[in-house]
Structures are given as structure tokens and as C-alpha cells.
Design goal:
Layout: H1 8-17, E1 25-30, H2 33-46, E2 51-56, H3 62-75, E3 81-84, E4 92-94, H4 96-103, H5 108-114, E5 119-121, H6 132-147, H7 149-152, E6 159-164, H8 187-206, E7 211-217, H9 224-227, H10 235-240, H11 242-248, H12 259-262, H13 264-270, E8 281-287, E9 293-299, H14 304-331
Parallel strand pairs: 1-2, 3-6, 6-7, 7-8
Antiparallel strand pairs: 4-5, 8-9
Amino acid sequence: MYYPKDGIGLALCERLLSVDTEGLQLCLACRNMRRAEAARSALLTSHPKAQVALLQMDTSSISSVISAAQEVKKRYNRLDYLYLNAGIMPNPQFDVNAFFKGLFSRNVITMFATGEGILTQQDGVTPDGHQEVFMTNLFGHFLLLRELESMLCRAGRTSQLVWTSSSNAHRSAFSLEDIQHKKGTQPYSSSKYASDLLSLALNTHYNKQGLYSSVICPGFVMTNLTYNILPSFPAFLWTLFTPIFWLIRMFTNTFTLTPYNGAEALFWLFKQKPESLDPYAKYHSLTSGLGNNYTQPRKMDIDLETSESLYEKLLQLEREVRKKLKDEQKESPP
């Protein structure tokens, strides 16, 4: 099951279908069904025999996630891959002063590659009462895989979770005392660092049941998420900066730029035996200055103790969510 996200998810589906159009069943889980229909139409245009189904799901909504999971269990007997690709960066604020200061520092390449120190966001609250970025980027996915646990953990075979993380995932943005990042200004970075931690914990608890979790970074890709960093900045001006980005790629291979290149690590993981992967590694999509794509594992700045603590906090939040739903069902008229 895959999430088409601003081109990267769609590019992954295209690449998968290019090698297997008969044995592969794709299920595109999307919040916006109009965009989902467009994605499906594009895939079927290039691969008419492909099996591509749609599923409506909004990871910021608890009821939407649970309903989608129930629908998946009705349609399928098993899940081999679950790509957790949905993510938002709402109301991004670009710190111009920090940007120009960074231009003349030794960290200029890191700043361009990760956005460290120059991006903040104003988070919102979902109707369920959770922080929007935390719910969309992390907890909605966690609740989904918990709902689909029986399909993902089956005797005699392996299944794989793949989280789309980011080079913007920084330990400094995350706090175990504030996992929803209510008090901070970097909810996106916090949520992505949390997904890195959670992936490690999931491997600790689920590997013996045949479920493996991996984390990827697509690199710097020109998508709607990128354009929205400067919402008043016309999209065509980003295009004018493309030659500069190509020049930067001569110095850092994280500038993958296109969705096809950004999906490299996702596609590479599809071809690997999950038990051979490193649970402490983030698999990066990289593109050389000459335009060659490859995947490289890089050690994440995570530790088992923190990952276990986060996992326990998420389980506790899940229990609270389920109790609330149960209470609401009791109060609802028959």
C-alpha cells in the first residue's frame, strides 16, 4: 500500500510497475480522492494492465485511519509492503536572517541540504484534539499499522514498513516530555525524528513476527512541499533557481531534485530482503553531480532507550484514543 505524496509516491509506483505489472497489486491511500483518481489514471495510462486500487484515508483523523484499515482488511488477505509517506509542513516560516547568516558560514551546504536553522512552522490542532503535524506525520501512521498488525505479522513470511523521513529530522527538535511538540516551533523536524526513533522500536518488538521497519530520506526534491516553504514565491521562480541547485549538487549528493530521483531509496528497499537491513540506518536517495542515482545507508542519531520510551508513550496514547472512542460509542444513540 502506497501514499502518493507530491510526486514521490507516484514516482515510486511508476518505477515498481516498470518491473512488475502482473504480480503487483497497488493500493493508493489518499486524503484527496480527486488527486488519487488522477494518480491512478496516470499509472494506468502508462501501464494498462496494472492493478491499482484507491483508498480514502486522512492520517490526521483517527476515524479516517480506523475506517481505512477496516476497508483494507476487507479487501486483502495480506500486506507485503506499507509505505508510510504522508506528511505535512504547515505554515512554514523562512528565517531570512538565519539564511543569509548561513550563506557565509561553514555550514552553508548543510543548511541547503537539511534546512537546519532556517525553517519553523505554526502547528494546528486536529478535531480529535491532537497536534496536526504529529498526528499526520507520525501517530496516524502508528495507529494504522497497529490496526493492520494481523495482516503485517503472519507466520512464514516477512512484511516491510518504510517510513519517509527527512534530513530535517533533528534530535534537538524532539522532546520525550512533549512528543506532540506543542511548545516548540519545529513540529516537522520533531515528527520526522520521532519516526526515526519509532522505526527502531518497531524492529525491536516486531522482527520476531516477521515485520521489519526501515527509514528513508528522499533528499531535496522539488515538490509542492518545497514550494510552500515560500508561499508568496511564484513557482516559476523556483524553476529559475534550478541551475543553481544543479551546481549545488556538485558539492552535495542530497539534491535529488526530481520525484523519480527522490524515490530511489524507496525503490531500492523494495528489492532488498528486509532482514538484511540495518535498523539504525536511514537509507538516503542520492544523486551524483553527473545525475547517477544510488542509495546509501547513514547511521541515524538515535538510541534504543529513547526509542523505547517513545514507543511506550505512543502505546499509552493509543489506549487513551481507543477508550475515548469506546466511550463515545456507548453515548451515541442506537
